[in-house]
Amino acid sequence: MKASFDNSCHQADQAKAALAKADDDLSKTTIYSPIAGTVTKLKSQIGERVVGTALMAGTEIMTIADLEEMEARVDIGEIDIVLITLGQTAHLDVDAFRDRKFTGKVTEIANASKARLSKGRKQQPQQQQQEATKFEVKIHITDKEQFRPGMSVTAEIETRFRTNVLAIPIQSVTTRLPKGPSGAKKNKKEKKEDDSGRIIGGPEKGQTSKPQEVVFLANSDTARMVPSNADQR
Fold it and tell me: What is the pLDDT of residue 177?
């Protein structure tokens, strides 16, 4: 009798363990989103079988996004990426909203470039060609609007700014060679010909000069040339 009682107790414990496992499996059939948001993609319908184990990737059921907190992801070239820092202000043009500009802040800068093979070419090891090197930059949009994930956007990031200065149109800026000892007129050395007819001489070493940006200011009936970065008060 005691052996039968002990056997019944073990069976009861096994039934309790099976019931606890069934309750745990049942709790896993209800999936809760980690955030409150809007369903942007629904890839599984009611009645479809989904897979989710520790040995393989699970089935993607849906994508949920918080439309109140939107960010833009733009690609920046390697020449300009060194000028980008966290917290810089960005002005965004969204194709869906014409004649409107939105503001944002740079929140993340990629540490590695996005390697892309040029389209229309076979991906052979000997013929692999990369496009211009790009780095992904994330911009948090501070303005609130009915944005949708996947919209096209163009960003202008302010890398530096000046205050209390006079701004002029870029069309008014031109370039001229500087005058003086290092100017173009002083760079030329008189050319001569030797007995064989070859030209000797030319610009002296170290006497080359680069053009500088200038603007022309109206001065009575004449125009006065000044450097574009000069302090004119």
Answer: 85
